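Thread: "does anyone have the structure for this chain?"

Original post by V.I.:
We have the sequence but no experimental structure in hand. Need at least a predicted one for the grant figures.
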Amino acid sequence: METEIRGAQCTQCRAVKPMAEFKRTLTRAQSRARGYAGAHKVDIESTLCSVCQPKPKPISKLSRRELQTRAASGDLHPLIAKFRQATLVNHAHLAQVENGHNRARNVRQPAWDALIKPVQKEIYTAAQQEKYALKHAQPTLVTFFRAYIETLKTHKTKLQLQQRLTNAAPEKGVTWVEAIPKEVIATIHALWVELPIRTRATRRLPAVLDKPSVDALVPYEHKRSTQMSAEERLRKV
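Reply from O.Q.:
Generated one for you, tokens below.
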């Protein structure tokens, strides 16, 4: 004896499938809306197949209000709803804190870049001058630029470490040269003045020494001789 299999056509995909594919379980809230007592879950025959039926929103995607509604209707255990609500509150707080840090970081970053990037640029310039001096066999210049580069690298590392450890921007109006300690600049100046005068005259003054307001750091200037030539003395007579 052949068993008759009941089937139906889905109103959405138009596929003919067994009736078992049209079974749908109502939530307690949906059961009450349809006139049932809502004490138990109710299975009904839907006009949509299991593939086309709307899927319930997973618990992980529910908002705090939706969790409260499901708990009130009996479709979700109150303890689970309470736990999920506490988790959402915690995530919202962490996101707010992170956004605050990101905004502050975006404000501070340009100020730190104004101190760190020029140091890196000066390191590159000094390295190029060191290569030139090494190529043309100028040991005194090579020694100076190597010491100069190491000093700048140390200062750059200190700035980067300070940036990571502090939550504040650097002092406004302070240039990258002014951020270098005076004793460091004094050391660079001492190395610079030890170079021969002719060597200094043909080289660009290091950027950290280009500060005329400090008397000790004024670069060497060739003074014109005050002794008059024979031709000038004749003109004066």
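V.I.: this helps a lot. Residues 108-222 form one domain.
O.Q.: and Confidence is low (pLDDT under 50) at residues 211-231, 233-237.
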